[in-house]
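tool_call: predict_structure(chain=1)
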Amino acid sequence: MKIFRISFNWRLLALIVCIQLFSSAKIDSGKVAKTTIQAKKGLVYIFEIRQDIAKPVWKITQDAFKEAESLKADYIIIHLNTYGGMVNIADSIRTKILNSRVPVIIFIDNQAISAGALISIAGDSIYMRQGGSIGAATVVNQTGEVVPDKYQSFMRSTMRATAEAHGKDTIIKGNDTIYKWHRDPQIAQAMVDPRISIPGLIDSTQVLTLTVEEAINVGYCEGKASNINEVLEKAGLQDYEVRRQEIRGVNKLILLLLNPIAQSILILLIIGGIYFELQTPGVGFPLGIAVLGALLYFFPLYIQGMAENWEVLVFVLGVILLGLEIFVIPGFGVAGIGGILLIVIGLTMGVIDNVVFEFEGTAAFSKVAKVFFRIILTVFGSLGLSIWISKKVATSLLFSNISLDGAHNRSEGFVGVDVHLQDMIGQTGIAYTTLRPSGRIKIGEAIYDAKAEIGYIEKGTEVKVLRTEAGQLYVMKS
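tool_result:
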């Protein structure tokens, strides 16, 4: 019995020791896991929309969400300030936000008007700068006129559906259960339709635009913030790592080339290149500059989906017709005029985006006419600048230092060219080739290099020699 008791005690002791070791290991592993969780730092990804809502903004948004997902960001903050823009682009952005697995916070840093309001309402949380506003989402055309109600109906339903996507809050008061929208859809569509009345907020004659205080009171804003740091603090994310979007490489180039100033410079290169090629016929440096300008003009528009295939083809066809006029067809007629017209149409239509709404009547005409007028002004301005530059280059000090300035008179003994050319002055002949303005003429049985004094001279036209200079005859139509 004694031996049995000792054995039993040893077994009991071993069992107790094992339990203690297991418990310690479990507690230690729990501490390690907890320490690991605490060591892990969340990530907030921030990008900006601080311009009109257009195709470039959609590209920025797509890239931002893609990068945020690749970084496994815990939150996305959109730093927003816009007066609106294209409804179809705003709809694409709001759909991206609603379908995002990463919570999206909107910081309205001043204004979220029209299309900006639609984007903001899609966010999971909204913070606004004091003095900012959100709303005024009525659909208008390029001239600011309200478009027909079928477009307003689409916008009303989109705004309403976006608000409804955030769901309802269930409130239990005694025996009553109340379902309250997190964001009231009626308020969302009141931002579009002035016929909607909300007691205490808006009457039935105005489109709704909320101030910061009003937005907080009706549940359309979680709080006020002056900057991103305050947004992080109020959202409880001040300890999170912050990563901002950096636009690099091709995307940066695309955004630069879409700038209206850059587009005007590219049109200058196109028109200037064509002009200087006309002055010195033949495939050379000016034509190469024009081609480069055209490529840089249409590349970002095509990438962003603004320029369709047919618009690019219209421009190319215009260039081909103009080329035929310069190098093949004598004179300057239908092909040249048609080529210039098609070039202008291609440049114009490439800039006009193919939006969801096909505005009716004068609205569509007004939009196209506005851009067409701007392109025409740029084209003629470029042509005038090209003419001015050509004159300045010809008389500049730089060129005067590398060119012969002054006349070497025959009476002084200078005979640098065929003296027989002096005898051609006053004689008449036939244009052996088309002079654009340079070419060849035929006097008797001899052929001479010649240049038209004014404009173009078609092949076969009778010409008269006015003067001679540097071994070349200068002529005009006889």
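agent: Residues 407 and 421 are 16 Å apart (CA to CA). Proceeding to next step.
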